[in-house]
Amino acid sequence: MPAPRNDAPVDYALVGGGVMSATLAILLTELDPDATIHVYERLVEPAQESSDPWRNAGTGHAALCELNYTPERADGSIDITKAIAVNEQFKASRELWDHLADSGALPDGTTFVSPVPHMTFVSGTEGVDYLRRRHEALAAHPNFADMVYTEDPEVVRDWAPLLAEGRLSSEPIAATRSDAGTDVDFGSLTRQLLEAAQARGVVVHTSVQASSVTRGPHGWKIRLRDNAWTPLGERRTAHARFVFVGAGGGALRLLQTTGIPEIKGFAGFPISGQFLRTFDPELVARHQAKVYGKAEVGAPPMSVPHLDTRVVDGRTALMFGPFAGFSLKFLAFGSPLDALKTIRPGNVLPLLAVARDNLDLVKYLVKELLATPAAKLRTLRKFFPDAERSRWTMITAGQRVQVIRPDARRTGVLQFGTEVITAADGSVAGLLGASPGASTAAFAMAQVIERCFGDEHPEWVGRLHEIMPSLARAGSGSRDPAKPAGPV
To answer: Is the pLDDT of residue 1 over 50?
Structure first.
């Protein structure tokens, strides 16, 4: 077998062609316009995994409707800290997109963003009481001042007719609504960001599989194979002084190959999902909202049920779900061996600790796996009582890998969120986790830049805050990169 070809060294190598790498690439062109930047994607096109619009909720997570961002404290009060942070993080994304549109980097008119009201809907006395208190807590904050609350079934019918029709009049219900909500086609956004980056000199490689990232004499070596889906693909090695691993479910294994101590003890727990989808014009016309409910006991936050308006490539659909599943794959286009390949001596204890401490999640997943089509229809009818199964098609969404991070005792904690990992010397970084994910890409990539380059280039940090003023309120700031990064 011939020796791998050595590519010319570059300044920045970004592994993965999703929204995270696309966002980081365009930010780096703003801050370091003369740098050489290469993006490596294993599939034939970018944005085919979790950034694909049918593989994510596209909600534009702003904490307007997601109940998991507003937990109830032991004293009955509602904690809105996470909701405020997520709201500001999504604002940072909007500010970046507006800046790029104003500068001509993105086309006039943000075709990937559609205005769609965000609603929360609950039923039952306990649910109504919780939502009332949640609204009171949120409405006191200026970011949520426009949120409207109702317990009137006729108002709910006006907001979202499908929720009210066929529902028993004796059942207490409540809903909130914010007209500031959006639907985001992250696939279209990713492609537009990469096209803008390419116009500025960024090189995007597709059908290129990265197998490892290891230290070399002048930075990092990335082992690659062209034509990743064929056994005869040419092997080559790329060299970069900085590497970002934004490979979704493949990020954990690649970060492990770096050998940086910051990744030790981390593991992943994969959860797959399915959605019911309809393009039925009558149903689509009568439901113009994203409506989130309460998760079942033990369900992960990404499994909160929601009935969503989706706008993809100009076509509107409704989606309901997710229905959780389980696969050892870490990627939709991955291998059943993905999970096994990430097991290391240092993360065995965290994995076992999470299995021990999350029996409710295990029970929930077993229940979901055993659910019949009739059971899934009953779940839909909790939102849409008159739903007919014949009008809906089941589709498989993407894989999500929840982060298992070591705690102080080197056991493990299952974390629902996204986690930025940076090496102590700032020469390599990566992103793990799922929701809120794509919605907070600008915030997460600003964290990468601040932690890896903030000391050397403080002017870059200042420029980021000029472009995205919400960063200051979203929790972004320089920190000691030698310490494991916190969740996004």
So the answer is: no
